[in-house]
């Protein structure tokens, strides 16, 4: 069962390509939403711009590439079958800040 704050390796499809890629993502949604068979996630990337939050080792309990960040400008909806493996969790504080940044973009 997927849990909020989990970091998963997920199979993600991009609009500019018919192929998928496996990427790390932070689960934002709750158990009630997961019961639908889907989850909402923020992608983890190695690019950094004004729409990303840097992820440090104090924010997460799994190794990531140096310079990783979480995108808050593109929450993605994925089917639970696209989550291939759980690799860790982010702290409650980091998750809250990520959700706040996401919400602030649409207010």
Spell out the key features of this protein.
107 residues; alpha+beta; SH3 type barrels; 7-stranded antiparallel beta sheet; 18% helix
Give the arrangement of secondary structure elements.
Blueprint (H helix, E strand, L loop, with lengths): L5 E8 L6 E8 L3 H4 L3 E8 L6 E3 L14 E3 L4 E4 L3 E7 L2 H15 L1
Antiparallel strand pairs: 1-2, 1-7, 2-3, 3-5, 3-6, 4-5
The fraction of residues in strands falls at 35-45%
Number of helices: 2
Number of strands: 7
Number of domains: 1
Summarize the structure.
With 107 residues, the protein is α+β, with helices and mostly antiparallel strands. 18% of the residues lie in helices and 38% in strands. Strands 1, 2, 3, 4, 5, 6 and 7 form a seven-stranded antiparallel beta sheet that branches.
Describe the structure.
It contains 2 helices and 7 strands. The protein has 107 residues and is of the alpha+beta class. The protein has a single domain, classed as SH3 type barrels (Roll), CATH 2.30.30. A hairpin with a 6-residue loop joins strand 1 and strand 2.
């Amino acid at each position: 069962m997927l849990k909020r704050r989990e970091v998963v390796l997920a199979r993600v499809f991009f609009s500019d390509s018919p192929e998928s890629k496996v990427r790390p993502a932070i689960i934002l949604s709750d158990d009630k939403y997961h019961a639908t068979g889907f989850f909402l996630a923020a992608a983890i990337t190695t690019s950094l711009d004004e729409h990303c939050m840097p992820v440090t080792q104090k924010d997460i309990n799994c190794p990531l590439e140096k310079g990783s960040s979480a995108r808050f400008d593109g929450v993605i909806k994925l089917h639970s079958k696209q989550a291939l493996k759980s690799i860790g969790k982010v702290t409650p504080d980091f998750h809250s800040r990520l959700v706040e940044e996401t919400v602030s973009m649409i207010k």
